[in-house]
Amino acid sequence: MKKIVVLTGAGISAESGLKTFRDAGGLWEGHDIMEVASPIGWKKNKELVLDFYNKRRKQLQKVKPNDAHKKLVTLEKYFDVQIITQNVDDLHERAGSTNVVHLHGELLKVRSTINPNLIYSWKKDLNIGDVCEENNQLRPHIVWFGEEVPLLNKAIEIVKTADVLIIIGTSMQVYPASSLIYYTKTSIPIYFINPIESYQKTENLNIIEITKKATLGVPKVVNQLIE
User: Fold this and answer.
1) 32 has pLDDT over 90
2) CATH number at residue 120
3) Which residues are catalytic?
4) Enclosing domain of residue 221
């Protein structure tokens, strides 16, 4: 069975109503990203960081998967599909996708500040004093700026197996996710779905640019692959 790997970024979730920090000149919901998405910000003001993610968590539970999320599920009827997402929401899973790797963590999970292997599902507010089973403060299960990306090597191995790569709603300019495209097998088709032409084409990559937003571009590519 042909292997299709899908890389998704903020653009696919933006159409469901989730804002991204890149839409506001480096601000995320009015906050400098280093205040709310870095170890330095966490150390400086834990309550601000927790409040920020509590609001994001509430917002996430009010939005729904859009047509792009749903159309990707259709691919699983015909191909071996693996999604690698930079997004921390669960919209792929709610749409019905069964194989999803979250490079940057998950908003509906929290983890111990001391033992990164202690991870818990979490839909309510997270507050100072909420602790893991080892009695250490819990933090959002998010990969912040300046932290290692634990699942990067897993994502690299997945991309190496792709017969087709689909990139949706990301400029592919943020490292290390931007490096994944270079691990593909030679000459495989790479569909790049983004409303703005932003990818610098190279001779070594077979880029097929679809200059549309996700809800329009994804159905077009999925239907083409199925046919």
Assistant:
1) no
2) 3.30.1600.10
3) 104
4) 1-18+65-104+148-227
